[in-house]
Amino acid sequence: MYDDEVKRILKMVEEGKISPEEGAKLIDALGVESPEKKKGKYVRIYIESEDGERVNIRIPLKLVKIAHKFIPKKFMKFTYGDGESLDLSELLDAIESEVGEYIDITSEDGDIVKISVE
């Protein structure tokens, strides 16, 4: 029911019958908060080399958090590609907050690396 009412309000905004601000007020007046971001339980690491070899790893997020404490600081930042860098500490902080794909790299050689939270 909440979704139907929100859709009707958004349709009225789209048609110009009400302003976006008025639409936001109406949605707020429904008294139902929007759903929270879904938190992940697993980290998926997918690697595919140009010759077709594949690695597909699924690790519980809790284990990743524990393992993070044992990685030496000098290995927490690295550079790849054309000087792009990745800070694993920042990545680990980010993956705690929401489900989604965080890294999607395809090299010039056709190698693929993807890291996501599900």
Can you summarize this structure?
By secondary structure, the chain is α+β, with helices and mostly antiparallel strands. The protein has helices at residues 2-14, 20-29, 61-68, 88-95; strands at residues 42-48, 54-60, 77-80, 84-87, 100-106, 112-117. The strands form two sheets. Strands 2-1-6-5 form a four-stranded antiparallel β-sheet. It has a two-stranded antiparallel sheet with strand order 3-4.
Brief descriptors of the model:
118 residues, alpha+beta, two-stranded antiparallel sheet, 6 strands, 30% strand
Overview of the structural elements:
The chain is of the alpha+beta class and 118 residues long. It folds into 2 domains: 1-35, no CATH class; 42-117, no CATH class. It is built from 4 helices and 6 strands. The strands form 2 sheets. Strands 2-1-6-5 form a 4-stranded antiparallel β-sheet. A two-stranded antiparallel ribbon has the order 3-4. A hairpin with a 3-residue loop joins strand 3 and strand 4 (84-87). Helix 1 (2-14) runs antiparallel to helix 2 (20-29). The longest helix is centred in the N-terminal third of the chain and has 13 residues, at 2-14. The chain is elongated and about 55 Å long.
